[in-house]
Specification:
Shape: elongated
Distance between the termini: 24 Å
Number of strands: 4
Number of helices: 4
Strand content: 15-25%
Amino acid sequence: MATTILSPDGRQWQVRRRLVPRLGAETVLGRLRRRIRGTLDKTRSAGNALDVADGCLSFDLDAVAVVIIVVVAVLLAVFVVIPLLVAIVDLVILVVVAVLGVLARIVLRRPWVVEAASADGERHHWRVVGWRRSGERRDHIAQMLSAGIIPPADLLTDTA
């Protein structure tokens, strides 16, 4: 849960506990959207490459319709259904790994990263051990920022 506050100097800050610090600015949902969009773009370009000129050859219309339906079904399966299934499996694996990561972080007492980011791009990070304590520190940092004080990193770091 992110807390958005406004400091006395007019800057907007978002203070949150980061669950996945390695993704940088990209979120899990953004990554999923990007991968689905890429798959759809590949499907569209493959569909454009298969355009056929009309009236070049004369065939039985029923046979041509059956062949076209089969080709479209195979292309749809190859370029849409299979990538969609792979994306869903990837998402399920990602959720399972995320849940296991959170559980491991809690059980092994690994520090959480509390981040304060301003709208103009300034970022501050603090490492805090414990879910409850990191939530308390997140709230404390938000209160300090709303009072116009940027907390120093060494005073709020707790790795014990």
